[in-house]
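EndoU domain-containing protein
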Amino acid sequence: MDTQQQQQQSQTSNNNINWDSDNCQKIKRFVIIGLLITIGILSWHFYEYFHSKPLPTAPDDVLVLSQTLFKEEAAENPYLYKVNLQGKTKSGAHDDRAPGPLFELHNDLLARDSNSTTALLQRLFNNYELDVAVPDVITAEHEQEQLDFLRAVMNTRVMKLSMRFLAKKGLVGSDYEEQLKLLHELWFTPYSRGKGILGSSSFEHVFMAELRDQNVLGMHNWLYFAEQEQQGHVDYKGWLDREETGRPNQFALAVRMSFFGINKSYISFLVGTSPELELSLYTVCFLATPKNEPCEIQLDKAKLSIVSHVWDWKGKKLIASAYVQFD
Ligand SMILES: *[C@@H]1O[C@H](CO)[C@@H](O)[C@H](O)[C@H]1NC(C)=O
Ligand SMILES: *[C@@H]1O[C@H](CO)[C@@H](O)[C@H](O)[C@H]1NC(C)=O
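Predicted structure tokens:
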């Protein structure tokens, strides 16, 4: 072996060593990255586990349930709507203490998620005839929209908990389809407010409004009020009563207004609440408390009652009316 050969050999072995340590580095890096990814995935699972916390057990009492439901309620983005109360008035007054509208609704943002309970509720608003003397035509599409809305509501923690409460009281089974059917029948069965004309339903009365002989009926949902105001059908005249929950932009409100030029001296509704919270509270109060008696609820700091009345219709007990009342 001459020196040149020796040198070459030692260089090759040097190269080998270099190559080995290079590989080693690569494997190390690979293992570290793998570990980091694993840790990442694990922490995501932990986060998910704690984030999607199990539903609390249903309380025995409607008042306690209402407190829990309000806590469960996902806080509504305060930028989606503005409330402009303006002047206070009296139900017997004829003045207009509110030159501007009550609500400023950012519909584009509110309905950005087309599967949200809010967007699905708003889609139902054009399915009905306002006048109870004009029969509502319920098409297959309307029927589908009702079920889409109810299914989305049933998917929320608020309604799941309410259903557990009703099941515990023996007012509904634990089966999903049975629960869906209960809500569908209670809220969407068409009934007549006179002359046998199928022009009304629990939903239409509570979540929308109706006209009968130059009278405004119902109108107990703030999103419907806001939409009708945007369309120029509602003229807000001032507020009468207010009960704060302690959360910004969420409270109970009573107002005087006119709808299609017809004066209404007093209506009350919750402001800034989700469709699932309202549907839950009205359903639970209607089914679980003695008929026609006020049902006491508490939404954080706001102590209120829900008054509901029964409409007997062909063997079914449907909702003639349901609204918040100030204590
Ligand atoms: C409705 O209220 C307005 C004032 O807000 C009044 O001018 C009008 O006469 C009222 N209409 C009826 C039918 O009472
Ligand atoms: C909404 O729900 C429908 C039916 O479940 C689905 O096909 C659609 O992709 C959803 N849209 C969005 C924006 O999530």
